[in-house]
Amino acid sequence: MSENETRVLVLDDDHDDAFLIEEAFDEVCGRKYAVSVFHTPNEALEVLKTQSFDAILCDYRLGAISGIDFLKAVRKMRIDTPVLLLTGMQSDAVDQEALAAGAADFIAKTELSGIVVDRAVRYAVANAARERLLRSVLDNASAGVVLLAKDGEPALWNPRYGVFASMLAGVEPDPDVPTARELVSALSRHTLNADTKDILVADHTLEKTVTPLERGEVLILLHDVTERVRALQERHEAQARVTHMAFHDTLTGLPNRAAFNNRLDDDVHEARRRHRLLAVLSIDLDSFKAINDLYGHAVGDAVLSATARQLKEAVGEGEFIARLGGDEFVAIAPISEDVEVPPLAMRLGEALERGVDLDGRHFSCGGSVGVAIYPHHGADREQLLNCADLAMYRSKRSGGGVCVFDSEMDNAVREIRRLSEDLKLAIEHKDIRVHFQPQTTVDTRELTGFEGLARWTLRDAPVSPGQFIPLAEKNGLIVPLGEHVLREACMAAVEWPFPAKVAVNLSPVQIARSDVANCVHTILLETGLPASRLELEVTETSLIEDRDRALHVLRHVKDLGVSVAMDDFGTGYSSLATLQAFPFDKIKLDRSFIAQVHEMHPSAAIVRAVVQLGLNLGMGVLAEGVETEEQVDFLKSVGCQEMQGYLIGRPAPEAVFPEKTAR
Ligand code: C2E
Ligand code: CA
Ligand code: CA
Predict the structure, then answer these.
(1) Could you read off the pLDDT of 231-255 as tens digits, one per residue?
(2) pLDDT tens-digit profile of 256-289?
């Protein structure tokens, strides 16, 4: 049997007919047929068990059974060889039945010839090959495929479709067993009825393609897109999480600053378009810092979260609240023309007043709410927020509650802003001068040193340090300003005819925000002033914010050989504790005590006690603000060592030395 031989099985109970068929094949030229002839179905079936053929030619009449019965028996053996039926007469009914059973073609016995059998067999073999290819494509397709006949019943489907049908029915899918027609039919109906592109079958998402064919047939393709949908969903969720994180505060879950900015911009835009009013609320808890300090950060955080929840509950529809950070919140509320105070401000104020309960403990921080109204107080986000903040500070100063912005606050602010800019320029242009005020012993009034004090003249008028120093501390300019004063003071001191000390004030903000020790060291090297001639005056506030850092800085300064004085002693709230924390070289007793000592005032007792305390701690005591001889007498009587004040000398552009300078 060679490669291009076509193997044909012929079955005909009539020996003559069988012979005629064989002869017809012999007539065929150019093509080789190996024909095996059988006369009973059983013989043929027996051979088919072991041999394969390219085509089967079978008589329609086989005695006891018909050719169609034989065809069915062959298919039952799972043999898909094309079967051609030899018929005597033409009958549509028989043809239909044969085709339905899977017959490949018919050959009329009356027309039997070489050309006819050759053409019919070749055609059937080619067709079978194509069908096998199609079958194998369908069997291996990842898509489920079904062909519905005109009546909507499945005519053809692949194993994958069977799997999907089983999933829909909730039965265990088995790709090897072709699924029952009813299941396949049910899935098809389900698919056709679903009006979305994606249909859900069990926990799978199937994407459907329904294609109507000619003759009323319908082809359905189902793709399993579960993974793709899941991946897409996961990406969406991840995206949503990132977006949420970008616009929400992790501690309280409230929208954050970025979200607030977007929202306020949008709302202002909308209010402008519709000529509506909009209230912007700035909210600050009053005693949150104390709770944090007293109970620790964990409790602080819990109080903050609970407070945030309570605030959120007070926010109604169309209103908005966000947390800017720390204990700062902001809210937005549309309001009508006739209200003076936005209802939301009242509700938030009440919520803060109520406080929160945590683990059986009640926390009430109270809060201050500042209100600014668009368009009265500002045209954009920055202006509105600024005004709301100012109103909030005003409220805080007057003990909390709700405060609506007024233009007076604005003028003050504008002035402060202008002053800030002027101060910045003044520092850059080194327009800040240093004046020197002498310090002497009390007994003999011998000169011991000078305190350097910053002086600023703006457009020919002096600006008081009481005004520009706090401002510089607020906007951070104190750092370059302080450095400038220190350098000027040291530069002046090296030129003095007498090695008196020079005292320079050091702001808490400098200690907190700059590398003071390094700066002092550099300036001493630069100017050549011996460290022992420099004294830094610090107030108690320096030690309150970040005590450890401040003590560390002061120790560093002291290590350089610079002395440290405690300024304004007695005005802080735990001056004695502060004295214990650091070995100051000197205590500067605040001038408020000295001003009152002449009267029979408790101050006298305090001054006496402080001098005693200084002696015990090994710290010298200097009395500030000495203006009268009576005060000097008193200081003498209690044994105070040093003094400073208008009586001795006012701050002056140059250090003034007496004719006869002590030692
Ligand atoms: P301070 O450190 O307590 O400075 C002493 C203040 O008392 C000075 O006010 C001085 O002019 C004033 N004074 C001196 N003797 C008398 C007196 O007999 N009677 C009265 N009533 N006052 C007297 P000034 O110069 O206005 O400074 C005010 C505050 O500004 C200073 O208080 C200090 O805290 C701060 N300051 C001044 N210059 C600087 C500086 O360069 N750096 C820093 N950080 N603060 C400075
Ligand atoms: Ca001082
Ligand atoms: Ca002082």
Answers:
(1) 999 999 988 888 888 888 889 999 9
(2) 999 999 999 999 999 999 999 999 999 999 888 8
Is the pTM above the cut of 0.70?
A: no
Half-sphere exposure of 91 (CA within 13 A, CB side): 10
Question: In terms of C-beta density within 10 A (0-12 exposed, 13-18 middle, 19 or more buried), how is residue 141 classed?
Answer: middle
Q: How far apart are CA 33 and CA 21, in angstroms?
A: 12
For 411, counting Cβ atoms within 10 Å of its Cβ (0-12 exposed, 13-18 middle, 19+ buried), the class is exposed
| Ligand that lies nearest to the alpha carbon of residue 487, given by its number in the listed order | 1
**In which band, very low, low, confident or very high, does the pLDDT at 172 lie, cut at 50, 70 and 90?**
confident
* Position 293 confidence tier, pLDDT thresholds 50, 70, 90: confident
40 Cα–ligand 3 center, Å: 130
Residues with CB under 6 A from ligand 1: 437, 453-454, 464-466, 469, 482, 485, 505, 507, 537, 567-568, 591, 625-627, 645-646, 651
Burial class (CB in 10 A: 0-12, 13-18, 19+), 588: buried
Please state the three-class secondary structure of 412-462 as a single string.
Answer: HHHHHHHHHHHHHHHHHCCCCEEEEEEEEECCCCCEEEEEEEEEEEECCEE
Ligand 1 centroid–CA 443 distance in Å is 24
Q: What is the pLDDT of residue 175?
A: 58
Q: Nearest-CA neighbor of 185 among 218, 136, 142?
A: 218
